[in-house]
Amino acid sequence: MTYKPFIALAAALTLAWPAAAVLPVGAKAPDFSTQGSLAGKNFPFTLSQALKKGPVVLYFFPAAFTPGCTIEAHDFAEATADFNKAGATVIGVTAGNVDRLNEFSATECRNKFAVALASASMIHDYDVKMAEREGLSNRTSYVIAPDGKIIYAYSAMNPRGHVTNTLDAVKAWRAKK
Predict the structure, then answer these.
(1) Is the torsion defined by CA of 61, 28, 162, 76 positive or negative?
(2) Other C-beta atoms within 10 Å of 30: how many?
(3) How far is residue 97's CA from residue 9's CA, in Å, rounded to a whole number?
(4) Which residue ranges in the chain fall short of pLDDT 50?
(5) Which of 29, 113, 133, 146 has a CA-to-CA distance to 47 between 20 and 30 Å?
(6) Ordered strands of the 89-94 beta sheet
């Protein structure tokens, strides 16, 4: 008897099944400063500064130029105008290096939104460590209100759903204002 079909099924279910986000709704989002990239150009990014403009969609992704992360970046790029209309800033964060993020921001993010370096302490503080790969984050999206509180959290390795869910959360928050 072979276990390959069972292993493949388990792997597929793991990718499709949303994991519980560790930082719950209502928690204070840890502030951070990091190196960002927008349209291939470096800039400093600080969460508390971005929150002064409105809500922030902070999404962690495992690695630039991997299939799922590229899909997610394309989806966020297509929805950037909708996020902007709702007054939200989108930033993707991942472990890696600035040169790779500069290229990723221009090609896969299509110059529409910023990506930035996720330090080991950020990955720890947001509790998004990928169990399978040391030093990488899992795929988790947060919506953070201007007061620094998390208003939405979603973890799932499948990139589908992150954009729609976070945009819906921003719109719902905006409707309450």
Answers:
(1) negative
(2) 14
(3) 34
(4) 1-21
(5) 133
(6) 41-46, 33-38, 114-117, 89-94, 56-60, 140-144, 150-155
CB 147 within 8 A of CB 63: no
pLDDT of residue 7: 34
| pLDDT of the residue at 13 | 36
Residue 161 CB neighbour total at 10 angstroms: 16
32, 117 in Cβ contact below 8 A?
A: no
Paired strand residues for 155: 19, 140
34 φ, ψ (degrees, to nearest 5)? -155, 175
CB 61 within 8 A of CB 69: yes
Q: How far apart, in whole angstroms, are the C-alpha atoms of residue 139 and residue 131?
A: 12
- Degrees, nearest 5: CA angle 134-50-144: 65
Q: What is the pLDDT of residue 101?
A: 95
